[in-house]
C-alpha cells in the first residue's frame, strides 16, 4: 500500500467526507454523493458517518476548508416518483 492512500476495508467501500460548508454547518457526504446531510455539530456529523460505514473509523475523512453538500448524484442514480401539484398523485413515466 502506498503511503497516503486510505486503508482498504472489506466491510465498507464507502468513504465519508466530513467538514464545514461556507455557512459554518457540518456536512457529511459519501464519495459517491448518494448519502449525507447537514449537522449541527461535529460530534453528530462524525456519529452519522461512522454509523453509515459500518463503524469503520478509517473510512471517515475530515477535510480542511469548505465542503459543500452536493446530493445531485441521487437524481442521476435513483428514479423517484414525481408528483403532480393537484392532489399529490404520482405521475407515472415509462422508463425503458
Structure description:
It is a single chain. This protein is of the alpha+beta class and 96 residues long. The protein has one domain (16-91). The chain contains 2 helices and 6 strands, in the order βββαβαββ. It has a 4-stranded mixed beta sheet with strand order 3-2-1-4, with helices on one face. The chain has a two-stranded antiparallel ribbon with strand order 5-6. It is globular.
How many E strands? 6
Inertia-based shape: globular
Using only CA atoms, what is the Rg? 17 Å
Mean pLDDT: 74
| Major sheet description | 4 strands, mixed
Offer a concise description of the structure.
The protein is an alpha+beta fold and 96 residues long. It has two helices and six strands. It has a four-stranded mixed β-sheet with strand order 3-2-1-4, with helices on one face.
State the main characteristics:
four-stranded mixed β-sheet, two-stranded antiparallel ribbon, alpha+beta, 96 residues, 26% strand
Amino acid at each position: 500500500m502506498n503511503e497516503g492512500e486510505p486503508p482498504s476495508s472489506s466491510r465498507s467501500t464507502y468513504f465519508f467526507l466530513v467538514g464545514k460548508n461556507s455557512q459554518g454547518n457540518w456536512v457529511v457526504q459519501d464519495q459517491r454523493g448518494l448519502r449525507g446531510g447537514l449537522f449541527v455539530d461535529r460530534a453528530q456529523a462524525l456519529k452519522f458517518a461512522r454509523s453509515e460505514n459500518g463503524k469503520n473509523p478509517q473510512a471517515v475523512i475530515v477535510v480542511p476548508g469548505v465542503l459543500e453538500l452536493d446530493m445531485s448524484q441521487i437524481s442521476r442514480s435513483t428514479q423517484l416518483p414525481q408528483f403532480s401539484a393537484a392532489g399529490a398523485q404520482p405521475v407515472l413515466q415509462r422508463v425503458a
